[in-house]
Amino acid sequence: xxxxxxxxxxADRSLSAGETGVVGWLRQAIAKHRLGQFDEAARSYRxxxxxxxxxxxxxxxxxxxEHQRGNQAEAYELIRQVISAQxxxxxxxxxxxxxxxALGRPAEATDSLRAALTVRPADPRVLKMLGGLLVQxxxxxxxxxxxxxxxxxxxxxxxxxxxLGSVLATLxxxxxxxxxxxxxxxxxxxxxxxxxxxxxxxxxxxxxEAAIEHCWEALRLAPTGxxxxxxxxxxxxxxxDYSGAARAFEAVLARHPTMLxxxxxxxxxxxxxxxxxxxxxxxxxATRQDPNDPRVLGSLLFCENYRxxxxxxQLVEAARRYGQLVTxxxxxxxxxxxxxxxxxxxxxxxxxxDFRMHAVARxxxxxxxxxxxRQIELFAYANGTRSDAMTERLQRxxxxxxxxxxxxxxxxxxxxxxxxxxxxxxxxGHSAGHRLGVFARKPAPVAVTWLGYFATTGxxxxxxxxxxxxxxxxxEAAHWVETPWYLPDTYLCFSPPMVxxxxxxxxxxxxxxxxxxxxxxxxxxxxxxxxxxxxxxxxVPGSRLILRTAALSDPETADRVRRRFTxxxxxxxxxxxxxxxxxxxxxxxxxxxxxxxxxxxxxAGGTTTVEALWMGVPVLTLKGDRYSARMGENIMRNxxxxxxxxxxxxxxxxxxxxxxxxxxxxxxxxxxLRSKLAASPMMDAPAFARNLEAAFRGMWQEWCARAP
Length: 708
What we know:
Helix 28 (about 605-615) links the parallel strand 11 and strand 12 (about 620). This protein has three domains: about 15-205, Alpha Horseshoe (Serine Threonine Protein Phosphatase 5, Tetratricopeptide repeat), CATH 1.25.40.10; about 345-485, Rossmann fold (3-Layer(aba) Sandwich); about 505-685, Glycogen Phosphorylase B (Rossmann fold, 3-Layer(aba) Sandwich), CATH 3.40.50. The protein is globular and about 105 Å long. The protein is an alpha/beta fold. About 50% of the residues are buried. It contains 32 helices and 13 strands.
């Protein structure tokens, strides 16, 4: 805001000898105002106005003071009065804009600042203020233009460079943001906000180590700073230091307990650490701050799937509330049957942030390569920014590739409609990088959810979920907002790994004891899972359990896992806790240390299960009561191995004990499992592709039959 603290406004009339006492009151008011002694300053301003009711400078300054004290209605009335007398005064117009913004009237605030610019068209201070106001309104592109115009008037203003760089980073223009923020740093090397914003931009660009250094420098310069602590948490999360990230977000919330963004990020960090209950409580706290934040509600939905005590009926009702929140009927496109030939070539779009070395991609690679291009033309809408060898493989199968991470939901929905997509497939559900806001707009006649999430999305605009009768029995179709479309045999098809890793001999043959193992993430270690695995270890004397996942690189997290098993009587030396390895070949090779893999409950493994089977390691799973708990059952039934599906917790330990006793049978099974998996529907890509084509054709025919 403008606070020049004038003695009086140039338009005020000259003071007579009898009025000179007013000067003293005004000097005193300005001095107290500068010191933050607002009550005393207000009394002095009011003394001036009693003597001279039309003293514009005093009235203006009192308005500013009331704005600073949060009395926006009074501030508005005072500044409005001085503008009535001097409607073209740019200082008054700017401050009116501040007050209007504080009153929740952003459009009027913007108009007031633009009116000031008509008087001072190139005033850097006005442009900077307008830029800040536009940022608050989410109008970032307009803010960029304001800041660039301001720099023409003040080309060495580090603050304006900082503001511009911050907005560019928000827009995803990280290269320009980093260059701009480095200019700010050259002008003011000890500006903590610049270091903080540069840290964020570098983190977004993938230079995370440099980002962390700048965040720490910002905190050295401003130890109580909230933004650098928050940005530090974001960067630590990216390098897998989830404990450090959680501590950073907790420190932010200690100073700002209602900061919604910090709550969201803290919940995400807790999930990575396997602290599901803490994550749920954090997300629930966030919903109390904003009951209508779709990201929080979506994260809470995702998190609830890890809990064994969650009722499917309650989960679907919560998902319906999410769907109602994000679906605005005014945005939903009505599709007409302009080309309703039920047998024509279909345009099918896939939306995902995971077209890379990721679980979702490993179930897409083989089937998509087998899709008949005469029947289906594939489109990819890639919402991720990372690419690798898997991305290149998928691009060979998908002729129309769109990079969409920088598009808004509205822009992406329009692009999908312009591409003439007939069937649009969500591959994320409520997992990271999803674009459910696009699906809420219904940009294609038919929408399907598949692979990336194992519960209902809650969106009424998504028509189907691809499944089979093992994961969604017909009696449980009511647990879904979407209609289940049943594929024969399996709803997923694993692609052979891109690395060649041989199956090793049974480790128990040389170790003299059984080694159980799991590579599932820690969030899947529910209390039911820990109890079941502890019962197995207790029932098989001398056995060991290998747990391998990224979060176990953190000693604090590893200690927490040991304590959980100790509570069930399992000594820490029976656990081998290992961090995940980034190299996929090495990841698969580590299964050579495992005799029997143990599945989690109620969120069973999918990718981890088929990877274990590929490496000759059988997987013991538990029959569940929902899609996510039945994924292991689906896989083992497709391999014709129902004996590896336990009916209860007691049966789980009983079966594990029986399998562990027969070392010879385990060794024989190990040698045949890979070929058994390869010969099953789980890896029959041509047959699975035909089933997909038939499913899409059936969906399209149904739409044609009922289309307006």
